[in-house]
Amino acid sequence: MAELNKVKVALLGSGTVGTGVYKLINRQRKEMPYKVGADLVVEKVLVRDKNKKREGIDSSLLTDQWEDIILDDDIQIVVEVMGGIEPAHTYIKEALQAGKNVVTANKDLIAEYGKELLDTAEENGCDLLFEASVAGGIPILRPLKHCLAGNYLTEVMGIVNGTTNFILTKMAEEGMEFKEALALATELGYAEADPTADIEGYDAGRKMAIMASIAFNSRVTFDDVYTEGITNISSKDIQYAKEMGCAIKLLGVARNTETGIEVRVHPMLIPLDHPLAGVNDAFNAVFVHGDAVDDAMFYGRGAGEMPTASAVMGDIIDVARNIQFHCCGRIHCTCYKNLPIKKITEIESKYFMRMLVEDKPGVLAKIADTLGRNNVSIAQVVQKNKINDLAELVVITDSVLEQNFADALTSIKGMDITKEISTVIRVY
Amino acid sequence: MAELNKVKVALLGSGTVGTGVYKLINRQRKEMPYKVGADLVVEKVLVRDKNKKREGIDSSLLTDQWEDIILDDDIQIVVEVMGGIEPAHTYIKEALQAGKNVVTANKDLIAEYGKELLDTAEENGCDLLFEASVAGGIPILRPLKHCLAGNYLTEVMGIVNGTTNFILTKMAEEGMEFKEALALATELGYAEADPTADIEGYDAGRKMAIMASIAFNSRVTFDDVYTEGITNISSKDIQYAKEMGCAIKLLGVARNTETGIEVRVHPMLIPLDHPLAGVNDAFNAVFVHGDAVDDAMFYGRGAGEMPTASAVMGDIIDVARNIQFHCCGRIHCTCYKNLPIKKITEIESKYFMRMLVEDKPGVLAKIADTLGRNNVSIAQVVQKNKINDLAELVVITDSVLEQNFADALTSIKGMDITKEISTVIRVY
């Protein structure tokens, strides 16, 4: 074989994902001449403290100077795996402006600055790929941008946060309450020390913003996403759901409707025979509906060192192939539409509402009347348990406008007979 | 916008898939300038009889002369959706030799002549894409070649035939017998007039050959695939499986082991909590295991006019993007290894064996003894039903060499006490 071209890579960050990517590049070294027609080598690794030992990483590659990378014309691919907004944002922008291709796993950044960075990539004829930013190892962005590009996609629904899915699975399977399951998730390393971004749905919201942008060809940023977490869900809700043939999942839902794009993350009851209902533990899955493909689903590990590194590596290989064929920048930003985004109050949903009310005649009639006056029709009422002389009531509504339900809820909360609205969860 | 480049496409065939592709190209017409930076137009449609009316297809595009296409230098993409080996094989080869890119949905052809055609594509700097040849609308080949390219993939398992999955689902859910379920599949259009290729596992075998080749970077042709169909499965087997916490599916299994590649299609008992167990009706799914990504699964519609057209259209868009960036031929044949392929007799499996034996003392001992002498150890025995004074026995073995099990089976068949070996099914 003739002397091979060398494609040189710089890693920004050597945390969990960075270490995984470093390992994979080395593990796949012998395959690269066949897979991309070039050698792929890590040239530099940017770290905060270059004197700190990094297990398995050749210390001669470490640098704490961004200049060592940005000024090195031989580096053609910059892999950003440091996370956070700054300095990642500045580094990526400077790299693209210097004509370097960028692969990133940074969902916070892409959900916020995606347009700016993709525009910069296009201006400079560079690739900016970010498969790992959504759903870890699961191939989803490339399938949306390429394989399903012949569809008008109308729905993307995902379980895209492994921490909360693990918690909900433990609550469903072992009857744990939220706090107990969260403690277990923390102990096992599934939840971070500060779990806010996971349990409040922000992490899932960022991923939904990225997927909705690609699926609907119109920019959606994290600010556009309505988010609601799982902290109010109790094992009792999950039990009720089960009796109704449903599971409760933290779902990201993005829909392209005639009146605009809906994007939201919240807990939801979904029928047990829906493919997403069987996605358990820390697994992720994304369900897609398009006019041609109909239903499709992508399932796998949404986080972790090697699954995330797998997605980063797929992008690196893609860029390296583009470098060999002189076609970097082959895929531009695909957000060429400017569709309106609906407010959560304009969206229709079915609701599951569990509440404690006085246990006396006429109570249900009053509640039904209040719902009715707000144009909220009832699909089902379950009254089973009594708690300290109060009746526990579960009401499932038909599909109604969020604003109408919110108005009804305010009225019901203000009624004498209402002791507590325990939970409100949307229903698929 | 400046005058756009026109990318001209010829369709070979106007059957179900061809019509779907024609519809999609027109439905997506306005999107193409944004998605690929060019107009995409169908220039010619090759048909057998150009005087026959084709609903929805502009009759001025019809031709029955291959020369009209192969000699037209403006046509840059040939989309082969006629099926069968000849003349598809010749046309594709000639198109590639003439420098035209090819998209095909033809699994028979790729499973047989994949190497030759990919080599021809490479020699001529052309694209040859065939996403639609496996699992219809489900994005699977591009994820394997690109997104998961940083993995050593060790396992690909798939439910890749919708007809048989529909039949097995009906047998499981409604207690139908095979013939009844097949008749229903035929009535609903899921099964062809001659269902042999589906029910004997040949169709699935071709798809497994293609996926194994890509996943393991080593050529596997249909001849290498051991196939066994579902005609011997009875609803009774499914009932037994259910009681053991399993479903019976027609599975394609490809494994890359240290001693070689295993590729086979046969019915299999899989645990109900395996993601593939919940794939029902005519849906398909492909489960993949890699050293980095761990487990991943791809789910969707494996056949049908529009889902298959969705996959073809994804390929067409990819080629059109390559044309715009002058990088056709960017992905070569990825089979750069030459791994040995194991014979079915060299493979280890667990077995489920249902039989009718004389109902008297010592019978089980004799069977157990015969199995033991062939190095087949027993994991479980169930004896429940009596049928006309005979005992129905179900034996589950541990993982044993296929050859040993086959030898034991021959001996057991020859024993006086054995009245019938009703079914033998492998167990996951």
UniProtKB/TrEMBL annotation, chains A, B:
Belongs to the homoserine dehydrogenase family. The active site is at K207. This is Homoserine dehydrogenase. Its EC number is 1.1.1.3. It catalyses: L-homoserine + NADP(+) = L-aspartate 4-semialdehyde + NADPH + H(+). Its cofactor is a metal cation. NADP(+) binds at L12, G13, S14, G15, T16, V17, G18, T19. GO terms for biological process: methionine biosynthetic process; threonine biosynthetic process. One of its GO terms (molecular function) is metal ion binding. InterPro entries: ACT-like_dom_sf, ACT_dom, Asp/hSer_DH_NAD-bd, HDH, HDH_cat, HDH_CS, NAD(P)-bd_dom_sf. Residues 352-426 form the ACT domain.
